[in-house]
Every structure is written in structure tokens, then in C-alpha cells.
Design a protein that fits this description.
CATH class of chain A: Alpha Beta
Structural class of chain A: alpha/beta
Radius of gyration of chain A: 17 Å
Bound molecules: adenosine-5'-triphosphate, magnesium ion
Largest interface: A-B, 25 and 20 residues
Largest sheet of chain B: 2 strands, antiparallel
Oligomer: heterodimer
Largest sheet of chain A: 6 strands, mixed
Number of domains of chain A: 1
Radius of gyration of chain B: 19 Å
CATH topology of chain A: Rossmann fold
Strand order of the largest sheet of chain A: 6-7-8-3-9-10
Order of helices and strands of chain B: HHHHEEEHHHHEHHH
Shape of chain A: globular
Helix content of chain A: 25-40%
CATH class of chain B: Mainly Alpha
CATH superfamily of chain A: P-loop containing nucleotide triphosphate hydrolases
Number of helices of chain B: 11
CATH architecture of chain B: Orthogonal Bundle
Number of strands of chain A: 10
Order of helices and strands of chain A: EEEHEEHEHHHHEHEHEEHH
Distance between the termini of chain A: 34 Å
CATH architecture of chain A: 3-Layer(aba) Sandwich
Shape of chain B: globular
């Protein structure tokens, strides 16, 4: 397993938001994590990325112990998060945002990667010198995604990339996710749109109030009556 | 008019020193939203270390050149660890605390540094041994010296260097990213603790050199000299827009000019009722006016722009 977490617990103050979950993602997989509002999906991703301390549990990334690994170290290992609500550097230009994405890298041709991102998202190219704060929501999501790819992630975690976006943009973002996955990048995807998430992923976890209540092959979950009733609106 | 030119020259020289000190306030504020009140005292330590070096140099018959190099080196070697120590001990443990706590700590640290300096250097006014003998220069009826021109040029050079560092180096990019969001910068692989420490070190190094130049300019040092200098530099930072590096530079130069021109003409304007000894008043008049009329400063963003 590339990423593994066992009995992961995360609390805000005294209140546990994640109550001991097991999550594992294998190299090359595209895994979805779905659940209702407040189930603890964002909290889980933040804990995996190193933005929140674990109150219990242990884990590893590529065989290295994860729990005590500082945030910036995880990025250098290739564990990269695109946070909920995008989070672009509003007062940096688009080019500078992309450049920051490659901050942890010591290797390779960053300029060539940037060109690749511009090819992927031509709209970013047209606005490369513009401040990221002036972009539309959809453009910011493209930028956040492109910036994460600039890090050459081994495992890319995405927190609700479709939130608040027009259908056309959602389509573009999900096409990109599929392409990136096809190129061999491992992906852990948190998504409100459960149908979309289950359609493109191989496996999935379902979270409910801080616990994983279901997991398995995405195609099985799509057929699961409980999932259909609770998350697919049937 | 030669008084006008004279006041402009004086204003630019003192203003460039304000600017260098203001940079220390504004860089730390940009990254931590904290006013490091002890920064003025770090500058004072730089000045008094220079006093010690010059006293030693004078006693040992050293000439001005080596004494200056030694003074700059020594004040940096003392001030940078001092700045790092203040960050590590006083501010880092409070990073997630409410905003009032670090503010009170900042004032406490400032007082601590001042009285530590009083123990080392006494509470006397210390006049700098006259190793450096400035050569007077006349510019169109106004007089200045090679020392003063050097202070101005070195300050401008440091400002240019800092702008370059922030814009083009890896650490500069990390600083700008951290100033917008610690979490996001961390997600890019930036070691945020390291960036904050670097910011303090950089501010303290600039402050150390400002301290050397300040005591060379006035020839007198005192353990409380950092208080007024710090307040004025802070005013300059607010005038330019606290958190904004170019703003601090502009604010420093402007404040120096305002102070110098106002104190140069106040006698004429008030018919001799108020004299140039009121110069300190202007800095604070500026502070009050900025806070009332344009709290974000000349070049500052609205607070909503902070990520
Ligand atoms: N900073 C915080 N402080 C206190 N409680 C929090 C904080 N962030 C989240 N919570 C709580 O933790 C629980 C899990 O929140 P989380 O954001 O992880 O849910 P989520 O599954 O991502 O939901 P959504 O689909 O709405 O994004 C919720 O009950 C939430 O109220
Ligand atoms: Mg969420």
C-alpha cells in the first residue's frame, strides 16, 4: 500500500470528528471517499496531509511512518493535497502560484511542466501574469489542480474539486482527474457528487459521522441499495 | 533655497534609516500579523555593539576602515541570534494564542532587552569615539558629508537587495507564500517555522546595520534609543501600509522628509513659539492621521485581501 492509516482519530478541542478509521490506497489506484456534510472527510484528508495532528492511530506513506511527519515533509515525499475551497495564493500571479507548486521539487524541468499545465488549462495561460485572486471559481480550481500537479505528486488528494462549479468546468476537472490517474498518479478523491465519484474510481469508502461505514469496489457501491438511497438520491 | 535643500538631504538620510528599521517591523507583521516591539531594541543593540567595538578600536589604535568592518560584523553576529532567540522563546510558543498575548509579550521582551542593555552598557549617554572623520561635501548651498551620502546609498542598496531577494529567491517566494497563508505554504512543502525564523534573522541583520549607521550619524548611543527609533520606524511602516515591503521603504523616506521639513520650518510658521525640538511630534501626528484617514497605509491592501 502506498498510503495506509489505521485507527486514525482526529479531534477539534475535545470533540472527535474522525473516530478511528482505516484507510488504505494502493499505488495507481483512484479511490473515492464519500459521505454527507460533516461526516469527517475534510478532516481525514487534512490529517493525512499533516495539517491536523492525529489524536490516535498510525499510518505510513511509501513505508515511512506518517503520524509525526511534518506537513512540508509529506509534500516532499509526494503526498499532495488540493484543499477544500481551492486555496490559491490570491496575491501571487498564476505563474507564481504554479511555481510555488513546484517548491518542494529539487529535480526536473519546471518550465516544461508549466508549459504542460498551460496546455492542459489554456485559460490559465492567457492569464498567467494576472493575480490569482482575480480568477473565477472555476479558474481557481483549475489553478489549484495545476499547482498540485506541478509538485509531481505520487498521491494526489482532492477535496471536493467540483464544489460550486458550472457543469462544463466540472467535466473538465473530472476529465483531468481521469487523465492524471491514467498517467499513473494515485488519487484519493473526496467528492459531494457521489455518483460522479463512484463512476470514475475503482474503490471507495463511505463515511458517516466520523466512521467508515462501508467500503469496497466502486461498482459494487453504486449498486448497493443503502448507498443508492443515502447518496445517489434514489 | 538652501534650507529647503538642507532639510531634504537630512530628511532623506534619516528617512532611509527609518525605512531599513521599518522593514523589520513590516516583514514580521506580514508573516505573523504581529508587531515585534522589540525590533527597535535590536537596532539599539546593534548601535551599542558598534560603540563597544569603536571604544576597543580607539584604545588599540585601529583605523576607521577595519573598525567599521568589525562593527558591522559584530553587530550582525549579536543581533541576528538575538532576533532568532526572541522569535523562538517569546513568539513561537504563542503562535496559536489569541492576539493580545503576543502583543503583551512583545512589549515585555522590549523592556527586557532595554534593561539587559542598561546592565551591559549602563544608563549613560555613550558618545562614539571619533574614528570615522566625515569629509564635508557641499551640494548647492546645503552641506552634507561623505558619511551621510554613504548611509543613504547603503540603505538604498539594502532595500534593492531585499526586493530582489523577495521577488526572485526560493526563500523570498516562500516568504510571500507564508505571508498569505501558513497552511497553504505548508501544503507547497514550505517549512513555515524556518521561513519565520529567517524573516526574524533578516530583519535583525538589517536592523543591526541600521544601528551601526544610526550611531555613526548621531555619534551618541543610549540604551533607550531603540524606543523612539522603533516607534518612528513603526510609524513609517504603518504609513506605507504595514505588511507591505515597498510601503515600508516609501513610508520611511517620507516620514524622514516630513519630520525634517516640518521641524525646519516650524519656527518660521509659528513665529518662534515652537522650535525644532518638536520634531518628534510630527511622526506621531503622521501616525494618528494615517490611522484615522487611511488605516491601510499608502500602499497597503485592504485586510480582506489577506488569504
Ligand atoms: N475547525 C473546526 N473546529 C471544530 N469543529 C470542526 C472544525 N472543522 C470541522 N469541524 C467539525 O468536524 C466534523 C467533520 O467536519 P469535516 O469538515 O471533516 O466534514 P466533511 O465531511 O468534510 O463535510 P463537508 O462535506 O461539509 O465538507 C463536523 O462535525 C464539523 O462541524
Ligand atoms: Mg469537507
Amino acid at each position: 500500500m502506498l498510503l495506509e492509516a489505521a485507527k486514525l482519530e482526529v479531534a477539534y478541542g475535545g470533540i472527535r470528528a474522525v473516530k478511528g478509521i482505516d484507510i488504505a490506497v494502493d499505488s495507481g489506484e483512484l479511490v473515492a471517499l464519500i459521505g454527507a456534510n460533516g461526516a469527517g472527510k475534510t478532516t481525514t484528508l487534512k490529517a493525512l496531509a499533516g495539517m491536523l495532528p492525529w489524536t490516535a492511530g498510525h499510518g505510513s506513506f511509501d513505508g515511512k511512518p506518517l503520524r509525526e511527519m511534518p506537513l512540508h515533509q509529506r509534500v516532499r515525499q509526494g503526498l499532495v493535497l488540493v484543499p477544500e475551497g481551492r486555496g490559491v495564493f490570491a496575491r501571487l500571479s498564476i505563474a507564481e502560484n504554479l511555481d510555488m507548486g513546484a517548491y518542494a521539487r529539487r529535480d526536473g524541468d519546471i518550465a516544461a511542466d508549466m508549459e504542460r499545465m498551460y496546455a492542459l488549462f489554456p485559460r490559465l495561460k492567457d492569464r498567467r501574469t494576472q493575480l490569482a485572486g482575480t480568477l473565477s471559481g472555476g479558474e481557481q480550481q483549475m489553478l489549484a489542480m495545476a499547482r498540485a500537479l506541478m509538485a509531481r505528486p505520487r498521491l494526489l488528494m482532492l477535496d471536493e474539486p467540483s464544489m460550486g462549479l458550472a457543469p462544463m468546468v466540472v467535466e473538465l476537472i473530472f476529465k483531468t482527474i481521469r487523465d492524471v490517474s491514467a498517467q499513473g498518479v494515485t488519487i484519493l478523491l473526496v467528492e459531494q457528487n457521489a455518483r460522479l465519484a463512484l463512476t470514475i474510481s475503482q474503490r471507495a469508502y463511505v463515511m458517516e459521522s466520523g466512521l467508515v461505514t462501508l467500503s469496497g469496489k466502486a461498482s459494487d457501491l453504486l449498486d448497493n441499495p443503502k448507498v443508492r438511497a443515502a447518496y445517489l438520491g434514489e | 533655497m538652501d534650507t529647503l535643500l538642507q532639510q531634504i538631504i537630512n530628511g532623506l538620510i534619516q528617512g532611509s534609516l527609518y525605512a531599513i528599521v521599518a522593514l523589520g517591523y513590516t516583514m514580521v507583521y506580514g508573516i505573523l500579523e504581529l508587531i515585534n516591539f522589540a525590533h527597535g531594541d535590536v537596532v539599539m543593540v546593534g548601535a551599542l555593539v558598534t560603540y563597544t567595538v569603536f571604544s576597543f578600536a580607539a584604545a588599540h589604535g585601529m583605523s576607521a576602515g577595519p573598525a567599521l568592518v568589525l562593527a558591522v560584523a559584530a553587530s550582525i553576529v549579536v543581533c541576528v541570534p538575538l532576533g532568532l532567540f526572541i522569535e523562538r522563546v517569546a513568539y513561537r510558543p504563542l503562535r496559536r494564542a489569541q492576539r493580545l498575548a503576543p502583543l503583551i509579550t512583545a512589549i515585555g521582551v522590549s523592556i527586557l532587552v532595554e534593561y539587559a542593555a542598561a546592565l551591559i552598557w549602563s544608563k549613560q549617554y555613550l558618545s562614539l569615539p571619533e574614528l570615522v572623520k566625515p569629509t564635508p561635501i557641499q551640494i548647492g548651498g546645503a552641506s552634507t558629508s561623505d558619511l551621510q551620502i554613504a548611509i543613504l546609498l547603503i540603505s538604498l542598496l539594502m532595500m534593492g537587495g531585499l526586493l530582489w531577494l523577495i521577488k526572485y529567491t526560493r526563500m523570498g517566494k516562500a516568504m510571500r507564500a507564508t505571508a498569505q497563508s501558513h497552511d497553504l505554504a505548508g501544503l507547497m512543502g514550505v517549512n513555515v517555522d524556518q521561513v519565520i525564523a529567517f524573516t526574524f534573522a533578516l530583519g535583525s541583520a538589517l536592523g543591526a546595520i541600521a544601528g551601526v549607521m544610526q550611531i555613526l550619524y548621531y555619534g551618541i548611543g543610549h540604551y533607550l534609543m531603540g524606543f523612539m527609533l522603533g516607534l518612528k520606524a513603526f510609524t513609517a511602516a504603518v504609513l506605507g501600509g504595514i505588511g507591505n515591503v515597498q510601503g515600508a521603504m516609501l513610508g520611511g523616506l517620507l516620514l524622514g522628509l516630513i519630520e525634517s521639513l516640518a521641524s525646519g520650518y516650524i519656527g518660521d510658521l509659528t513665529g518662534g513659539v515652537l522650535g525644532s525640538n518638536y520634531r518628534d511630534v510630527f511622526a506621531f501626528l503622521v501616525l494618528v492621521l494615517v490611522l484615522v484617514l487611511r488605516p491601510s497605509g499608502l500602499m497597503g491592501q485592504k485586510s480582506g485581501d489577506r488569504a
